Automatic annotation (TrEMBL):
UniProt name for this protein: Arginine ABC transporter substrate-binding protein
Alphabetic keyword roster: Signal
Pfam families for the chain: SBP_bac_3
Family under the similarity heading: Belongs to the bacterial solute-binding protein 3 family.
GO CC annotation terms, alphabetical: outer membrane-bounded periplasmic space
Signal peptide (from-to): 1-20
Amino acid sequence: MRKVLTVLLLSTLAIGTASAETLHFGTTTANPPFVTANGKNQPVGFDIDLAHALCQQMQAQCQFTAQRFDTLIPLSLIHIL
């Protein structure tokens, strides 16, 4: 959980300097109940609900990309996530 929240925090800090209308979140879907995949292979859970609340407060759209955990930070550093 701590790792996922750290990634969410880093994502929000990175986008704080840009005025984007879409917030991109990289996540893994193998960490229930915080993040898991539903029947449509979409991420759901506590962290996803938290991200949606953040997007709502910022009046932005959320976009989630499911990846393996060990690829989240490298992909965000090269601006793929």
